[in-house]
Please model this.
Amino acid sequence: MKDRIEKLRSEAEAYLIADQESLEQFRILYLSKKGLIPALFDGFRELPADEKKEIGFLLNSLKQFATDRYNSSKESLSSAEAATTGRDLSMPSVPFGMGSRHPISIVRREIIDIFSRIGFTVSEGPEIEDDNHVFSMLNFAKDHPARDMQDTFYIEKISGEESDPHDVLLRTHTSSVQVRVMESQNPPIRTISPGRVFRNEAVSARAHCIFHQIEGLYVAENVSFADLKQVLLYFARELFGKDVSIRLRPSFFPFTEPSAEMDVSCNLCGGRGCNVCKGTGWLELLGCGMVDPNVLEACGIDSVKYSGYAFGMGIERAAMLKYRVNDLRLYFENDVRFLSQFRTEIV
Ligand code: PHE
Model:
């Protein structure tokens, strides 16, 4: 038995393992269930007790030797293979990071969610519009400066006139969607319209030629300014936190009368005044007002029976206040170092 073990050991030592195939043959010959080493273990059981200790030790070390040889040959073969193919097949794969939502999408979804909870639906409309839906039906005077080439991107000028209801242009606000809703639906209407808008402005930290808006519209019987104010307070508190206060300053828009701009109390200093709110304690967030009866009539809605309120805000503006990122350009550059900082539970 002892001789047999020694002979097997020197054979296993000399066995030529040159590739995967000979490695597998080595395993079958010595280590597999029906291999030479397990066969020796079968014979071991019949040995007299006084020989078992010594032979048992020799047998175990033979088995260990063959197993080690098998494992080390396997490893060196796979790294040799890597060297010839140029690939290390045992290397972990390249990790790829989780994506994250764009901050504008996060805030847009959040705002939609806040208004959905109180019954607002979402309406969308075309980005390429006509003068009628962007300006005329919204009570913009013929010579209103917003129609000027300086502000509006025109795609097609129908006539040489200052403005024509059929002029084709990129919408400068999503109020145009609300016109389309009022044209095609009867009150009560309660909707918000998120979307991209375009204005011919030089790109800087504070202005961009493309940005996003969400505008809201409620038209029904007996809608009052108090309703508007309460909904805006609810909205501001949902978006910025329960301690936020709002204030309304008189303003002007062609399509609302009366009109106001809404500020929220500065969520950095709590209203005491800091450099973000320029010492005022307030941050400007949106424009709003009661829908001008001329607009209702232009859309075929009886302005004696119905009244309504509207409001509109820039999503970038809301995101700036929420995240304190004060350079608008960052929202458009899609630098992953910027984008990966925004995480949200809302999917
Ligand atoms: N449409 C306005 C804008 O783009 C915002 C607004 C909407 C103001 C509704 C009042 C009412 O600035």
Notes: Residues 173, 175, 215, 253, 256, 287-289, 310-312 surround phenylalanine (CB under 6 Å). The beta strands are 121-122, 128-130, 154-156, 168-170, 189-198, 210-220, 246-253, 256-265, 282-291, 307-314. The chain has a mean pLDDT of 90.
